[in-house]
Specification:
The protein starts with a helix and ends in a 5-residue tail after the last helix. The strands form 3 sheets. The chain has a 10-stranded mixed β-sheet. It has a two-stranded parallel sheet with strand order 2-3. The protein has a two-stranded parallel ribbon with strand order 13-14. The longest helix has 17 residues. It has 17 helices and 14 strands. With 427 residues, it is an alpha/beta fold. Helix 1 crosses helix 10 and helix 2 runs parallel beside helix 3.
Amino acid sequence: MARQAAATAPVPMLVSWNVTRACNLACAHCYLDASRRSRNARDELDTAAACRVVEQVAALAPGAMLVLSGGEPLLRRDLARLVQEAAARGLAPVIGTNGTLLNERLAGRLRLAGATGVGISLDSAGAAFHDRLRGVPGAWRAALRGARAARGAGMALLVQATLFEENRGELAALADLAESLGAAALNFFFLVCTGRGATQTDLTPAAYEETLARIARLQRERPRLIIRARCAPYLRRLLGLRAGEGAGGYAGWSSACLAGRGYFRITPRGEVTPCPYIPYVVGNMTTEALSAIWDRHPLLLRLRTERPAGKCGDCDFRYSCGGCRARALAQHGELFAEDPNCLYVRPPETQPEPPPAPPPRRAVHWEPGARALLGRIPAFVRALAKARLEERAAREGRDCVTLEFMRAHRPPIGVSASMDGHRTWRG
């Protein structure tokens, strides 16, 4: 059983690591319930143990994007060392920060260490709501300074916004702000009520539907900016995309909840959970091998194979979407319950969605030069670029992606805009 599980376990493409609980802000929705202090807690991993974590992640998931967040990761004095270790082992390190502590000197140091990008939280297009949510006056302006410092250092910039009733009318204004800062991507996060976020008011199901439709429209209107909804897998249903399908920049690998499938979280103490919002600890990397945790833990195996209950399990998008498992847990106390924030009910004339067909057996190979150029693409758009190019190659009957093929088929959406800014596409 263990050998079979190990042989079929997916390879994670994204890992989120809360490197510390220390933080300089007091965000009302913090899922980690981070503490406002300037030093790491004694039970957090020291530099040597943290480097061993990096080593294990690189062995399990070569080339994956490693998001170093917190708390506030910039409060770790060894952050540049961890970034350097990750980059040296072939990972794509990205810093997830509130941005307030990021200046030109620190941004340059992190870029030199190998950071490929930085995600900065900006929850409104003006200071009032952002500062109130983050608990510190001036946080919004400081985040803007941090974003400009990151761009000045040559790092890719992602703008992150958590949506509430108070700011969901600012989608276009936030896109304007992201574009003015030179961001390559704008991620809209839908609240999962865990940690301090349990005290916050989530959007109603009707507001979810309306907001997701507006996000999809905003992406169509602004093709040079990658715009995504996070923790809202039912956007796939609104787009009419089935499992494995991609359109308009929404690639097949983005379907359904990634928790325990293509993604996991590491806590400041080295514990592993399926995602930041699912608090079930499936192992500790200081005492267990990450590969054994990922390949064999029963909860992770269930997340990969078990259908949810209720209308999610009976839906005609049950594989394409399947609902958010963390939200089901937060509101029902059951990980495999139906997602309470989805209004959709399968029409009686349709059938439950059948399992997706396995991917074509024909493999698309990459010549060394093309693979090297792919590796220079910013980490957060690399998988999208790879998927689009392989889809195009398969349609044209090619079994190899070459440098010439890459240059002849630049991705048509925000990926190419990001690449233009980093001079990676032309080699």
